């Protein structure tokens, strides 16, 4: 299930302006360079920020996302024609031999359903060439990121070109074991209110490692995200060479 804010064109258009600091993508770019990746599959590419950074570097990029409104934003960006955008998910991809598959900005948590998650790992593995890598991040449950998902901690006003001042904030709705549901709200300059609810799954490190192994990966490393020390697990897994 994809959260409304990626499906609603009005909210998809605000995704980049409301979160302009993409320092989180630096480590992914460095890994792509380190692996000498020539083809990358970006799963949950959203508005295409990472896919376009890769394409700028001459990499053949396939971006897949179930949210059509986000893909429309991605396609319309400068260089959008250099990326192969696929409306869907990792379970129904054309044949690929990617050197690297990525899920940036906690896409893994947005895939909350266990069956869908395992099917995503399976699809990513099939899209990788033997020896290719899968990299993604997920928030460390013990850090309880959701404790800050309330209006006082998250409220901001952003001046969005062509739109005007946009107020935005998050409200926590429910914590049900590993599932955390929250509401994102935006108020536009004309008083229009946009809201969208999302449910994320917080997985323990051991759980993710077990899922990766069960889907035929070798877990190469579990790192810290340099821009969010102690807050994220960054998984680096490999499809075995044979
Ligand atoms: C927080 S956004 C991250 C977007 C992008 N990766 C980035 O770095 O900006 C999460 C994305 O995951 C996508 N998503 C949700 N369920 C998915 C699934 N089953 N397969 C692939 N992507 C999914 C959403 O549509 C959304 O674009």
From TrEMBL:
GO terms for molecular function: methyltransferase activity. GO terms for biological process: methylation. The keyword Zinc does not apply. SUPFAM superfamilies: S-adenosyl-L-methionine-dependent methyltransferases. Signal peptide: none annotated. Transmembrane segments: none annotated. Keywords: Methyltransferase, S-adenosyl-L-methionine, Transferase. It comes from Streptomyces flavofungini. This is Class I SAM-dependent methyltransferase. Residues 40-132 form the Methyltransferase domain. InterPro entries: Methyltransf_25, SAM-dependent_MTases_sf.
């Amino acid at each position: 299930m994809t959260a409304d804010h990626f499906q609603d064109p009005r909210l998809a258009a605000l995704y980049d302006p409301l979160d302009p600091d993409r320092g989180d993508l630096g480590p992914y770019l460095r890994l792509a360079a380190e692996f000498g990746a020539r083809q990358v599959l970006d799963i949950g590419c959203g508005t295409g920020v990472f896919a376009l950074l890769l394409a700028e570097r001459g990499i053949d990029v396939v971006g897949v996302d179930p949210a059509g409104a986000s893909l429309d934003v991605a396609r319309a960006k400068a260089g959008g024609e250099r990326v192969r955008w696929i409306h869907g998910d990792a379970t129904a991809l054309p044949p690929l031999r990617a050197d690297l598959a990525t899920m940036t900005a906690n896409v893994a948590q947005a895939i909350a359903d266990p069956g869908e998650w395992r099917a995503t790992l399976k699809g990513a593995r099939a899209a990788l060439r033997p020896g290719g890598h899968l990299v993604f991040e997920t928030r460390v449950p013990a850090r309880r990121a959701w404790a800050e998902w309330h209006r006082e901690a998250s409220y901001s006003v952003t001046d969005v070109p062509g739109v005007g001042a946009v107020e935005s904030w998050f409200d926590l709705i429910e914590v049900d074991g590993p599932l955390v549901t929250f509401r994102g709200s935006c108020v536009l300059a004309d008083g229009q209110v946009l809201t969208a609810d999302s449910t994320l799954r917080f997985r323990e490190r051991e759980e993710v490692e077990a899922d990766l192994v069960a889907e035929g990966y070798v877990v190469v490393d579990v790192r810290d995200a340099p821009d969010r020390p102690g807050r994220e697990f960054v998984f680096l897994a490999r499809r075995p060479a044979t």
